[in-house]
Fold these 2 entries.
Entry 1:
Amino acid sequence: MADRPVILQIKQVVKSFGNVHAVNGVNLNIYEGEFFALLGPSGCGKTTLLRMLAGFEFPSEGSIKIDGKETRDIPPNQRPVNMVFQSYAVFPHMNVFDNVAYGLKVAKTPREEVKERVQDALALVKLDGYELRKPDQLSGGQRQRVALARALVKRPRVLLLDEPLSALDAKLREAMQLELVKLQKAVGITFLIVTHDQEEALSMADRIAVMENGVVRQVAPPGELYESPNCRFVADFIGRMNLFAGIVEGHEDWGGLNVKTELLGKLTIPHSERVSSKLHLAVRPEKLRISSEILPSSYFSFPGEVDAVVYHGSESHVYLKTDAGPFLCATLTNLSRISVRPKKGDRLWIGWAPEDTLVLSE
Ligand SMILES: Nc1ncnc2c1ncn2[C@@H]1O[C@H](COP(=O)(O)OP(=O)(O)OP(=O)(O)O)[C@@H](O)[C@H]1O
Ligand SMILES: [Mg+2]
């Protein structure tokens, strides 16, 4: 992506409402044609940042450039961006055609051109043939596609989507996620999507920025964010994570880190970077192995017992109480219909490969 031109340049942007710093010094470069996601818990400033890009709010400090142009004095309707809101912003009394055509008519686009562009936009979202339907004659997913067509018909350079799928049920949501990605690749417009659903961000975006309290904590492609989070907050927010505290006791010449932990006593982790004395170690539940027999000697392993098993269909989450005290969670894929699953009270060995340990210094 970095070889493409920057289309959105966000520099040291702050937005304060009284003494609330909704956005608190954000720097981001988003590239042309990128599918970029802003991810973070409720209230971390995602919508506020999007509204500043669209021109509905003004930054208290910092600068936003779109296509290299400072946006401070550009009103919303003259920015090459368009926003799709969380609640389907469609007019209930207008049919699909008029809903999509609305923005073009306001801009006094010639009638023939309106017709052509509306047809193109409806074809893109696979709603050709639905021109005369009213919104209440459409499913939730179809209504959301009308909202998308309305934004696309203006041919923005950047489409801002604020939780566009949050009102849809799980199945439809997954189908729309796939469709949105295909659509984005087909039209080549830069998409900036806001979500607080980490799976949605992981499955759709080229890159993700994780926000906390108005600050961006990490920007990375999905796989890197999941496997190499840079801090405890990101590790814990993305997916499920086992975390436990440790104290650094020293570094080995070959790149090992000696750590003392309550869970495992002293251990040496492959980790060449220097870290401060207190840290957190982390391991993903799917990387844990549990077995009634002793684990390979290369593993970190220790005894414990099953505290609870929660069945999720394709997988089960096994909650484990280690003899040393800490609780851990392991994910087991239910590979066959009649597999014997562990049950509460089972004694077993728990462990993982050293290289699957994450070292988090904050
Ligand atoms: N107009 C406003 N006046 C005062 N405070 C505001 C205003 N808009 C947002 N805030 C505050 O700014 C912070 C960030 O809000 P924002 O809507 O950007 O969060 P968000 O990340 O979009 O959350 P959600 O996931 O719940 O939509 C919140 O603490 C919110 O209460
Ligand atoms: Mg929001």
Entry 2:
Amino acid sequence: MRIGLVGKPNVGKSTTFAALTETVVEIANYPFTTIDANIGIAWIPLRSNCACADLVKKIKESGRSIESDDERKGSICTPRTGSCIEYRRIVPITLVDVAGLVPDAHRGRGRGNQFLSDLANCDALIQVVDASGTTDIEGNPIGEGACDPEEEYDFLINELNAWITGILNDSWARGARRAQAEGQMALVRYIHSQLSGLGATEAMISSKLSSFIASNPDLDVPWTWNEETVSNLACDLREKLFPLYVAANKADQADISKWIHLKTRIEEKGGLIEATSAETELGLRRAAKAGAINYRPGDLDFTISENAELTGAQRKGLAALSNRIEEMGGTGLISLLSSVVFDRLDRIVAYPVQDESKWVDGDGRVLPDALLIPQGSTAKDLAYAVHTDLGDGFIRATDARTGRVIGADHELVNDDVVKIHAKT
Ligand SMILES: Nc1nc2c(ncn2[C@@H]2O[C@H](COP(=O)(O)OP(=O)(O)O)[C@@H](O)[C@H]2O)c(=O)[nH]1
Ligand SMILES: [Mg+2]
């Protein structure tokens, strides 16, 4: 799972990235602070309790005792990555802080080409916009309310569309001619050859192409399509390739009237936009890292640590952060990321194990992996998500909750615990 943070310079991408990954990256108030794409890991809590809660129940029912650890508040799993406290399991998402983007980046302006290649492998994009409108379209500070977040949104969509249009138009007539002799599948294959680097699949292209043709009944044969028609197709493909969600950032400085238009527009089309304050999240993460407060990713508030030694100024700073998140109902960042992953990209969690009765791996680690897989994934898909060898050698699987044997095509559901049997 890979999510790209995109947007014009100076909207708070690097701050968002730093907050979510707790990695200290350069953050400054001028364009092009981010020289190369930063890639990091963001942690999000699963929406349901970790399967170790059920394992605890299972063990208790069988009359065995459990070694408990007060700090874990009941959790008994041993995550290979992330953590689990009080059955709240935190899992990784790859996050890319994409280099700043300016209008006409698809023509190579600014760091355009870097931008385009950075986002090629992303499952979804989160566009960070400056809801407060304090920076112009190229990211230069200009004072409050002088720039409209809607303009930012439109420019980014236009850039993405222009990029894909450019790729398709490159040799459209020649590529589309093949369809004359070989039919629509040949056109699908041509488009696929052009867009496979961006993560497009033939199935995805085929379905988008069919619906595009169906909704434009007056279209002539593909090899005669003009640039505008190809561009309209590119828009449809872009929506599928790079679903785009929006963080209305600097919301701490922006009242809703500044971005309500954009919000209405996006929500009318079924899109997702949420108020965020990356700066607040970063402040909280750093305070938590320093041991001053108790604050976990996704929490809507925090408490001051019992043994924290704070100066008056630090207490004041924390009180300000506390006011902000009370007003906003959290900083919005994890909530947005979680909606993208679980509601929009329809990820479910599955726990592969090697021992179906103890729910451990070969080293005795309890529920070591909580993998996010697309809804509709089969047992064999899960095997591939663990390791190519496990997928290639797949024989059958066992549903560790019921003990039933399941086949390669068995569709998994959220929270499944699965033992995979494979030839090695
Ligand atoms: N008030 C406020 N300022 C923010 C927020 N997020 C970022 N900033 C500030 O906006 C400026 C640009 O941030 P940066 O993350 O470098 O933007 P980027 O160019 O998009 O990566 C910095 O001065 C940040 O401190 C926020 O949520 N609220
Ligand atoms: Mg940056």
